[in-house]
Amino acid sequence: MMQWVAEHLWAAWLILATLLAVAEMLTLDFTLLMLAAGALAGGLVALAVPGMLWLQIVVAVVVAVSMLGLLRPTLLRKIRALPGYRSSVDKMVGSPGVALTEITANAGEVKVAGEVWSAHALEGSIDAGTEVEVYRIDGAIAIVYPRHLALP
Description:
Elements: H1 2-7, H2 9-27, H3 31-48, H4 53-80, H5 88-92, E1 96-99, E2 109-112, E3 115-121, E4 131-138, E5 141-146
């Protein structure tokens, strides 16, 4: 039984690579795709030398880390340079939300697209419960203004 498992470990590597690649389609972050490449490399080593699990693991880790460090940044840079690319944070600009607490120039919370964000008022203060719109994102803080007012 153990001999059979050792000889067919490549199938487990292939299944792992496939699961990671499919999961990548949900994140579109290229991280899981790089890990899938490492698992695929481990599977290729398993085909070549079936009994050397330690070598399969080493190759899988080296390939995955190399891909994460070298290929992923290049791919992300190229995708972000495409015309019309907008990150999910950029897409939040102009989105409606609701002030959960009073929002001042220095503090507050807002709910936008089902997520709670720290918020600062673009101008003055905004009462809790007021409908707001995202003016810009500053790091992890949404800069907002009341929807019923024109932009300052």
